């Protein structure tokens, strides 16, 4: 798969084994940044990497900061890196954010290969070029647009994900395939058990479909000035659920739950039928961990929504789904509708816990 971007076109490759990943780590003596947990799980992949070219990153939210980027730049400068240096990063979204930022600012941009090891990164964030860092207590305040030159997706990595990380990734897969229209929704319903079982063919098919859907939007609106806003479907509530729960609800699961809340608003506006809403909720229920409904607090969620950097107008902006599985951007969602969405999310979680 080739993704076209103004700065460069880049390639997404699906690998059915770790051999090509190991080859990329050895090719041309790159500087390798790897999530420390991934290194511990797969030490054999890094045996050919010299110790002075290997950087272990503690890929936690507290490390998604400028200091981590500068540590990588410092280490690469110490090894004598020049403008032809190549960085290979192996890990999930935090690893991608930190290394993508470093690759962008070192010599105004060096070659970069990304190997996503989480389903969440593989099905969504690995393309699009966005990097984000936390700064002075503000989440994702700093950022750049700098895609990798190549992305290697090896679904075998997903077999060692925690249940929480797997569920988070599946949340984004479900979201993309609901956005993909009637045929995509029906195919997802028929294949959800294979996804849950991490059947390789099924995982590859739906990760590829998620990326193809996203590619169609980001190639048309690379810099977030128009249609790319549609990718925020379920994120108005999702980001708020994530933040207001102090990240007890991980990103992908928060987005899936945000879909439940947003669909409740769509239904109340007469945009979405009860039948379609039930079908979507049945899919989300299959991949949703049993979070405590009390994590969804109306006031905290509303506050988080109003603090979100994408809320730049007077009203609340959200992306809603209609009966034809088409997306509509609205700028007038009311606080009462936020409360309605929160109530729907709590009821949904109660049902998940009772199932």
Describe this structure in words.
- This protein is of the alpha/beta class and 355 residues long.
- It folds into 2 domains: 155 residues, Rossmann fold (3-Layer(aba) Sandwich), CATH 3.40.50.1970; 187 residues, Dehydroquinate synthase-like, alpha domain.
- The two termini are 40 Å apart.
Helical percentage = 40-55%
Point out poorly predicted stretches. Answer: none
Shape: globular
CATH class of the largest domain: Mainly Alpha
Spatial strand sequence of the major β-sheet? 1-2-9-6-5-3-4
Give the termini separation: 40 Å
Q: If you compute it from the alpha carbons, what radius of gyration comes out, rounded to the nearest whole angstrom?
A: 20 Å
In CATH terms, the superfamily of the largest domain is: Dehydroquinate synthase-like - alpha domain
Number of extended strands: 11
Q: How many structural domains?
A: 2
CATH architecture heading of the largest domain: Up-down Bundle
Determine the number of helices (DSSP H or I, runs of at least 4 residues).
Answer: 13
* Overall pLDDT metric: 94
The CATH topology annotation of the largest domain reads as: Dehydroquinate synthase-like, alpha domain
Structural class: alpha/beta
- Subunit organisation of the chains: single chain
Q: How big a fraction of the residues is strand?
A: 15-25%
List the secondary-structure elements in sequence, H or E.
Answer: EEHEHEHEHEHEEEHHHHHHHEEH
Characterize the main sheet. Answer: 7 strands, mixed
Protein name: 3-dehydroquinate synthase
Keywords: Cobalt, Lyase, Metal-binding, NAD
Cofactor: Co(2+); NAD(+)
Domain 3-dehydroquinate synthase N-terminal: 57-166
